[in-house]
């Protein structure tokens, strides 16, 4: 099995990050968007990704990528809250390409983000995940995150079924 590398995302990663988002969304597990949602953004979606990577605008934001054989197969981010009274809070997110899961990539990205957050004085790291995303929930709980609350019936799937969104928190 080929090793993976974790590095800071760069401006030339925008297209690969957009394609990763589409692959994860097509897989359907744990997502809140459809591929149509992502594609509807068109160039604007790529622009939002590019903006998140621009050093001039990303104060308090970390974006990491996982790379295998030159291809981006995962990414994670922490965004520090901007308001003065919540600067100790960061919001974490992660995604790994479906064919690259079960290799420790998500865990490695998560741990790197936690270390970055600690080094910057972030004390509360939170994330949101679907209640039915059992693998992700197991990962978060094994890394010290605790369920804080649930946004009940937050998602309505195409078949009409509702899914709760779980808020997880880890105090650093």
Summarize the structure in words.
The structure is a single chain. With 172 residues, the chain is an alpha+beta fold. The chain has one domain (5-171): Aminopeptidase, CATH 3.40.630.30. It is built from 5 helices and 7 strands, in the order βαααβββαβαββ. The chain has a 7-stranded mixed β-sheet, with helices on both faces. Helix 1 (14-27) packs across helix 3 (42-53). The chain is globular, with a radius of gyration of 16 Å. The N and C termini lie far apart (33 Å).
**Overall radius of gyration:** 16 Å
CATH superfamily: Gcn5-related N-acetyltransferase (GNAT)
Count of strand segments: 7
Beta percentage is 25-35%
Number of helices: 5
């Amino acid at each position: 099995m080929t090793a993976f590398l974790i590095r800071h995302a760069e401006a030339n990663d925008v297209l690969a990050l957009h394609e990763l988002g589409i692959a994860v969304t097509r897989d359907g597990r744990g997502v809140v968007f459809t591929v149509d949602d992502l594609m509807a953004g068109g160039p604007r979606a790529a622009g939002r990704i590019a903006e998140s990577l621009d050093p001039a605008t990303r104060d308090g934001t970390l974006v990491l990528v996982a790379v295998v054989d030159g291809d981006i197969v995962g990414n994670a981010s922490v965004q520090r809250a901007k308001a003065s009274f919540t600067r100790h809070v960061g919001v974490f997110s992660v995604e790994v390409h479906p064919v690259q899961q079960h290799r420790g990539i998500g865990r490695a990205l998560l741990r790197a983000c936690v270390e970055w957050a600690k080094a910057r004085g972030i004390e509360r790291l939170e994330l949101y995940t679907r209640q039915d995303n059992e693998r992700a929930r197991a990962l978060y709980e094994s890394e010290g995150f605790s369920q804080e609350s649930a946004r009940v019936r937050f998602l309505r799937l195409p078949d009409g079924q509702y899914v709760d969104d779980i808020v997880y928190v880890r105090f650093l």
